[in-house]
């Protein structure tokens, strides 16, 4: 029996990683976290940020690798699931590169036939800015200033990461704790309704 897949999609600092840890700590069974942060650690430095490349087309020289990196990540997610391991992955999908790459639809196609729940993780931009300002030094997060309180890269993330916005469930981390978000996801899995977002996105790839 394949393992359950949960994909948490949202902007940086929206709370995805905290939800993933809550899932790992409270859900039954083995849950493997294959997300953007862990994947970056195995990506060669010259290709980083790899799948974490920001919207805006700032590094077209790296874009040729992005579809392959995403494909490899999702093939790994699929392989874990087929071996009966549950997977939670926190990512920030967008298609705001120098030209469209269609990564999300391709990734969805690679999960065909597997139980996958796509969750949109939302958070108001003012809270994201506060979290960025409070982040530990060296993480590389763009922060605001009195002259530019919400820098363009942050605004681009906020808009681009939720296109097309097709989800099985959405959570707002400004009103729910990571544990409450995990509980909402657990309830969505238990309610018996067949997830359809990944299938819909996969059909868009054909």
Summarize the structure.
The chain has 206 residues and is α/β, with parallel strands linked by helices.
What layout of secondary structure does this protein have?
Layout: E1 5-9, H1 16-26, E2 31-33, H2 36-41, H3 60-63, H4 66-82, E3 86-91, H5 103-109, E4 116-122, H6 125-134, H7 152-160, E5 169-172, H8 178-190, H9 197-204
Parallel strand pairs: 1-3, 1-4, 2-3, 4-5
Helix pairs in contact: 1-8, 4-5, 5-9
Please give a handful of descriptors for the protein shown.
206 residues; alpha/beta; 9 helices
Protein model, in words:
It contains nine helices and five strands. It has 206 residues and is an alpha/beta fold. It has a five-stranded parallel β-sheet, sandwiched between helices. Helix 5 packs across helix 9.
């Amino acid at each position: 029996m394949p393992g359950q897949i949960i994909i948490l999609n949202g902007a940086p600092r929206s709370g995805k990683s905290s939800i993933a840890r809550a899932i790992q700590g409270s859900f039954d069974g083995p849950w493997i976290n294959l997300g953007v942060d862990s994947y970056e650690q195995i990506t060669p430095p010259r290709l980083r940020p790899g799948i974490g490349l920001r919207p805006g087309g700032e590094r077209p020289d790296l874009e040729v690798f992005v579809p392959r990196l995403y494909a490899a990540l999702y093939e790994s997610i699929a392989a874990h699931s087929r071996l009966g391991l549950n997977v939670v992955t926190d990512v920030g999908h967008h298609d705001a590169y120098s030209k469209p790459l269609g990564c999300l639809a391709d990734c969805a196609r690679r999960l065909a036939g597997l139980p996958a729940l796509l969750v949109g993780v939302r958070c108001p931009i003012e809270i994201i800015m506060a979290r960025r300002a409070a982040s530990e030094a060296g993480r590389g997060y763009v922060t605001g200033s009195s002259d530019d309180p919400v820098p363009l890269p942050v605004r681009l993330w906020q808009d681009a990461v939720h296109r097309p916005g097709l989800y099985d469930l959405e959570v707002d981390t400004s009103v729910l704790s990571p544990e409450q978000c995990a509980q909402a996801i657990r309830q969505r899995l238990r309610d018996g309704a067949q997830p359809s977002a990944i299938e819909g996105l996969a059909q868009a790839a054909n």
